[in-house]
Design goal:
By secondary structure, the protein is of the alpha/beta class. 46% of the residues lie in helices and 16% in strands. The strands form 2 sheets. Strands 1-2-3-5-7-10 form a 6-stranded mixed sheet, with helices on both faces. Strands 4-6-8-9 form a 4-stranded mixed sheet.
Length: 259
């Protein structure tokens, strides 16, 4: 299949595939079309007996700078709950094979939520992480509040989500969000090397090992993600959400009204 917003390749000898986000003009912002293509690619990977692991990457400047705000700015609460956009994340989370995420540059908002769906994060020295949704009047809505709290702990997640502060690769490493850090010119190759190593192991044992680790880390995760999703959608009925997203689009400071 030919994709418009992602680049897919397979290294059959080393038994892994690469899905690379490809909206460079928008810093790989995650719009509906890109997510649809990504889910389609992962469905193909799931069925391909040659693919034992997947590398998910962006480019050197940005893994993904977040969701596409222009696409969401006029959405209603009902649309956010019924359009099916957030359910795509559930399908990616249910992917059975290991996902090695290669992050360089911006990994913000939905970009960080997508990275945390992966199983291992390899970061470049320039990686910048964050959940800045609070700055536009919403909260993380694709699992960010739940996954970050599980990875970094309640106190750290609370600080990062309530302030929207960005943080670098070293801090991500310290809190357990990133596994390893490499220079920009080698981080993607290192991610591929790791994927190839994992892909060389017995496939069924790898699959069940991933399932077991996720079970340990994700007790009640799906219920909690659905709770987060309802709160996220509720904010699309507020004036502050409209103001926040419009201010972002217009590159100005928002004026909050608390309603």
């Amino acid at each position: 299949m030919t994709y418009q917003h992602i680049i897919v390749s397979k290294e059959t000898e080393r038994k892994f595939a690469v899905a690379q986000l490809n909206r460079p003009q928008a810093l790989n912002a995650l719009n509906f079309e890109l997510m649809t293509e990504l889910v389609s690619a992962f469905r193909d990977f799931a069925k391909d007996p040659v693919v034992n692991a997947v590398v998910l990457a962006g480019n050197e400047k940005a893994f993904a700078a977040g969701a596409d705000i222009k696409e969401m700015a006029t959405a209603t609460s009902v649309e956010m709950l019924t359009k099916g956009y957030l359910e795509m994340w559930d399908e990616l989370h249910a992917f059975k094979k290991p996902i090695v995420v290669a992050v360089s540059g911006y990994c913000l908002g939905g970009g960080l939520e997508l990275a945390m769906i992966g199983d291992i994060i390899i970061a470049s020295e320039t990686a910048k992480f964050g959940q800045p949704e609070i700055n536009i009047g919403v909260i993380p809505g694709a699992g960010g509040t739940q996954r970050l709290a599980r990875l970094a702990g309640k106190m750290k997640a609370m600080e990062l989500i309530l302030t929207g502060r960005q943080f670098g690769a070293e801090e991500a490493l310290q809190m357990g969000l990133a596994n390893k850090i490499f220079p920009v010119d080698s981080y993607l190759d290192e991610a591929k090397k790791l994927a190839a190593e994992i892909a060389s192991k017995p496939p069924m044992a790898v699959r069940l090992a991933k399932e077991a680790v996720l079970r340990a880390a994700s007790t009640n995760l799906q219920n909690d993600v659905e709770f987060e999703r309802r709160l996220f959608a509720l904010l699309f009925a507020t004036e502050d959400m409209r103001e926040g997203m419009q201010a972002f689009i217009e590159k100005r400071k928002p004026v909050w009204k608390g309603r």
